């Protein structure tokens, strides 16, 4: 089963690597050394994200640096990094807030603008700092101006999760449908409801990531022990256990799944799309948003919010932050603590009135 389990993730890695090679064609030759060095420590998806971010930096230099504007990017030497100051890096950081891509570079209309929130801005600046650090540590450049520029600050955002009433309403909606549906919409709902109910129940009942969900093969479900074998971020395998509600939803879907003839190469996928292919992350995200909008308009519910909902419920029931971290697949328990600090505070407040100093 282990070899088959790797199939989906190895295919995804292959796609990422091929895409990375295409992106690197737009890079100066020296830049490729950095990405070769990352192969042993970074996932292909991370390397590809870094490549997009560094490409944005090079395109910025092409458009805004008069010394580089007329030079073929493939002739650039690593010394260009030494020629940039902290002020240049600061200006680039400012540029990232809202920017356009030159039509001559990517065939994108000039008026198409891109924006970065604080998370996107920090990611791009982190990628650039990592890029500079690689060459600086190897003494290929003498300066590292990225260290002199303040990294963007991230503001704490409230963790969005569903309460028990919303969770029940969401599952009821998927199971019984919306009475206002008619025609083709009703037919589509009837065709997909068991699949959708199985996916949402699985996400709510185990807290797995949406990428882990779509990567599941039918052979990864073990009803004898009520467990699923998943591949975590980073490639490690883990078994996550599920309860009776998840078991029932999965069994109902798997019974219906037997009547579906998938396209070649997708036979082992646990969840099929309407095109009889393995469902993708985007399809699950769209499905969750479609149903959740009918339940609440004040919260933007995504598969990740279902994961937070599960983590909250598990911590509320057990009070064991290390168990929550383990089940959610967090490598660092501090990540878990940060997400559920508010609940810790609620527990401490209850402790204030738990001990009576004198008999009433």
How many discrete domains? Answer: 2
How many angstroms does the end-to-end distance come to?
63 Å
Q: Please identify which CATH superfamily of the largest domain we are dealing with.
A: Intergrase catalytic core
- Helical residue percent band: 55-70%
Instruction: Please report the number of helical segments.
Output: 16
- Identify the CATH class of the largest domain: Mainly Alpha
Average pLDDT for all residues: 86
CATH architecture assignment name of the largest domain: Orthogonal Bundle
Instruction: Order the strands across the largest sheet as they lie in space.
Output: 3-4-5
Strand content: 5-15%
The major beta sheet can be summarized as: 3 strands, antiparallel
The general outline is: globular
Radius of gyration over all CA atoms, rounded: 25 Å
Low-confidence stretches: 1-5, 103-111
What's the helix-strand series?
HHHHHEHEHHHHEEEHHHHHH
- Under CATH, the topology of the largest domain is which? hpI Integrase, Chain A
Q: What structural category do the secondary elements indicate?
A: mainly alpha
Give the beta-strand count.
5
Give an overview of the whole structure.
- By secondary structure, the chain is mainly alpha-helical.
- It has two domains: 147 residues, no CATH class; 174 residues, hpI Integrase, Chain A (Orthogonal Bundle).
- It is built from 16 helices and five strands.
- The strands form two sheets. It has a three-stranded antiparallel sheet. A two-stranded antiparallel sheet has the order 1-2.
- Helix 9 packs parallel to helix 13, helix 13 packs antiparallel against helix 14 and helix 14 crosses helix 15.
- It is globular.
- The termini are far apart.
- The N terminus is likely disordered.
